[in-house]
Amino acid sequence: MAVTARTDIKAHSSQPTALFTPAFILGWLVNLTQYLGFYFLITVMALYAMESFAVSETAGGFAASAFVIGATVARIFAGWAADRFGKKKILLIFVALGTIASLFYIPAASMPALIAVRLVHGFSYSLASTAVMALVQSVIPAERRAEGTGYFALGSTLATAFGPAIALFVIEDFTYNMLFWITVGTNLVGLVLTLFIRKPEFIKIAEQGRMKATWSIKTVVHPAVALIGLFMLAIGLAYAGVITFLNGFAQENELTAGAGLFFIAYAVAMLVMRFFLGRIQDKHGDNPVIYFGLISFALALVLMSLATEDWHVVVAGALTGLGYGTIMPAAQAIAVSSVPSNQVGSGISTLFLFTDIGVGLGPILLGTLVAATGYSVMFGALAAVIVLASVFYLVVLSRRAQH
């Protein structure tokens, strides 16, 4: 069964062809603030919980993953809410809620309180990130879908590269409370920027004559996006292995210098390729870009499994940027192009739901594998997962109509 292309993709002839509009730029910046808030805390939360409340590594890991649990629960409603009540309204409400939630990290004085804050923060982040993605997708010209999606994804890439580094610097030289205040400030900037986003006239006209969506299982798992979602579940699982166990692997093998540059190499590689890959996908279809990403990601994981020098880890970081950093925005473009224009929120939310499941399951499943076999075997196993995902894409998804 192939994913079918959207037939109404040029339904609004009045849509402009410019890509970097005010709505796109402001949406990009809001998205950056949301991802920074996520990456500031995800890398240090387990350690913070263990140090502050004297809990086990398992409990500390749950404090970190509670955010993902809240985000995953929100995916059940996020796409429908954005389509039903309006992307701008949902974005504003849940950026505000995320800002309020981030304030409560400081007074949270127990593990249950911390986990509650993480759940609410993750819930609000999920709805906000879905809404801003749907909003920006609605202003990207159809003929530049993949290019625009790729540029939009650079915000999350920069957050991936610099968020953890900033967090580690702050807790080493200052305090966790300082990091929490920085997170609050970042969310507050996102809230202010959201207030200035204005929907273009062609979107307002389109929304006036549109029936309001009703919640159903199809708004949670959109049938047109389910297959590319399953593909991204496997990709998310592999990515979770990298971001979760990179530091432990580096410390065990004395490769911390390479690990420190891993996400910088990731961001640089993706930044350079963004000038080419999106245009290639728009012009030649999805397959060349997806295959390029899969090959790069598999090579990154193989190299990690064999790494003995810092430069091995840095090169693996660049390959991961060319791999996961290419596949994710390409899949987002596929998802958006596969659904009607009034169901973009549901399409994006479906893709994120499957990806979140992969990322959420990764630390649990792979932690057991690491304990039994070690890091190198785990990275090798994840390379095999990417090979299986490649076969799935080739057999099931590669016949998708080229656009």
Automatic annotation (TrEMBL):
<keyword id="KW-0472">Membrane</keyword>
<keyword id="KW-0812">Transmembrane</keyword>
<feature type="transmembrane region" description="Helical">
    <location>
        <begin position="177"/>
        <end position="198"/>
    </location>
</feature>
<feature type="transmembrane region" description="Helical">
    <location>
        <begin position="377"/>
        <end position="397"/>
    </location>
</feature>
<dbReference type="InterPro" id="IPR036259">
    <property type="entry name" value="MFS_trans_sf"/>
</dbReference>
<feature type="transmembrane region" description="Helical">
    <location>
        <begin position="20"/>
        <end position="47"/>
    </location>
</feature>
<feature type="transmembrane region" description="Helical">
    <location>
        <begin position="59"/>
        <end position="78"/>
    </location>
</feature>
<feature type="transmembrane region" description="Helical">
    <location>
        <begin position="313"/>
        <end position="336"/>
    </location>
</feature>
<dbReference type="InterPro" id="IPR011701">
    <property type="entry name" value="MFS"/>
</dbReference>
<keyword id="KW-1133">Transmembrane helix</keyword>
<feature type="transmembrane region" description="Helical">
    <location>
        <begin position="115"/>
        <end position="136"/>
    </location>
</feature>
<feature type="domain" description="Major facilitator superfamily (MFS) profile">
    <location>
        <begin position="23"/>
        <end position="401"/>
    </location>
</feature>
<feature type="transmembrane region" description="Helical">
    <location>
        <begin position="148"/>
        <end position="171"/>
    </location>
</feature>
<dbReference type="GO" id="GO:0022857">
    <property type="term" value="F:transmembrane transporter activity"/>
</dbReference>
<feature type="transmembrane region" description="Helical">
    <location>
        <begin position="348"/>
        <end position="371"/>
    </location>
</feature>
<dbReference type="InterPro" id="IPR020846">
    <property type="entry name" value="MFS_dom"/>
</dbReference>
<feature type="transmembrane region" description="Helical">
    <location>
        <begin position="90"/>
        <end position="109"/>
    </location>
</feature>
<feature type="transmembrane region" description="Helical">
    <location>
        <begin position="289"/>
        <end position="307"/>
    </location>
</feature>
<feature type="transmembrane region" description="Helical">
    <location>
        <begin position="255"/>
        <end position="277"/>
    </location>
</feature>
<dbReference type="Pfam" id="PF07690">
    <property type="entry name" value="MFS_1"/>
</dbReference>
<feature type="transmembrane region" description="Helical">
    <location>
        <begin position="219"/>
        <end position="243"/>
    </location>
</feature>
<protein>
    <submittedName>
        <fullName>MFS transporter permease</fullName>
    </submittedName>
</protein>
<dbReference type="GO" id="GO:0005886">
    <property type="term" value="C:plasma membrane"/>
</dbReference>
<dbReference type="InterPro" id="IPR052714">
    <property type="entry name" value="MFS_Exporter"/>
</dbReference>
